[in-house]
């Protein structure tokens, strides 16, 4: 049986390497050794009893992993990450751990926020706990998304609260204008997220924490903002507006627009 190593067996949680073929040998629970998925099935393949829902969880985390690595140009193989032991899963690999709902949620959060590839579980659990407490929805944000009234008779506070709690993903945009050492950077970012903090974490991965802290993050897109006028073509702005109206779609989870220009004096 051919085997593939997604990570050096003695690597632990350290630096990872690309997928490399190994000599034929029995499959064991060592490192990130796993059967070559392109080989034919064998009689001695390990049997895993699972459910369709659990398979869907693994597929969801795998999709989030690949999307994040492509979006952020991470120099790492998504397959390698899925099959390597991770502290966020108590040393298990995502391919095994993420059949469980809680582990699936942690995997999604790791890549949604652009966290480290081997982050501690306690840090992610703390974020999940704080996210559950954030059910407040600012009044101005509600009016911006849904207008002053939902109908001729308006809407009750209970109706507004119900919509607010169900509206988890929203469109955010950010602009950055910074001049350092005769170098001017102007940047625009748009993506769908649960909070401005999530967007700022993404910006930190793209531009570094200093520029991320200086970013002006807003709910929705504001076409009259000077940097939006300067950087965002009208067709792109229209596409962003359309995505903001359909944040519940599957495409919204990986939607991101980054435009920047640099002027060197």
Secondary-structure map:
Elements: E1 3-5, E2 20-21, E3 33-35, H1 52-71, H2 78-83, H3 94-97, H4 101-112, H5 121-132, H6 139-146, H7 157-166, E4 170-180, E5 183-193, H8 196-207, H9 209-214, E6 216-219, H10 226-231, H11 234-244, E7 256-264
Antiparallel strand pairs: 1-2, 1-3, 4-5, 4-6, 5-7
Give me a quick take on this structure.
This protein has 265 residues and is of the alpha+beta class.
Give an overview of the whole structure.
This protein is α+β, with helices and mostly antiparallel strands. The chain folds into 3 domains: 3-130, no CATH class; 137-167, no CATH class; 168-264, no CATH class. Helix content is 40%, strand content 16%. It is built from 11 helices and 7 strands. It has helices at residues 52-71, 78-83, 94-97, 101-112, 121-132, 139-146, 157-166, 196-207, 209-214, 226-231, 234-244, and strands at 3-5, 20-21, 33-35, 170-180, 183-193, 216-219, 256-264. The strands form 2 sheets. A 4-stranded antiparallel β-sheet has the order 6-4-5-7. It has a 3-stranded antiparallel β-sheet with strand order 2-1-3, with no helix packed on it. Helix 1 (52-71) packs parallel to helix 4 and helix 4 crosses helix 5.
Number of helices: 11
Count the beta strands: 7
- What Rg do the Cα atoms give? 22 Å
Shape designation: elongated
Which residues form runs of ≥5 with pLDDT under 50? 8-32, 132-155, 162-167
Number of domains: 3
Class by SSE composition? alpha+beta
Q: Terminal Cα separation, in Å?
A: 60 Å
Percent range for helical residues?
Answer: 40-55%
* Strand fraction: 15-25%
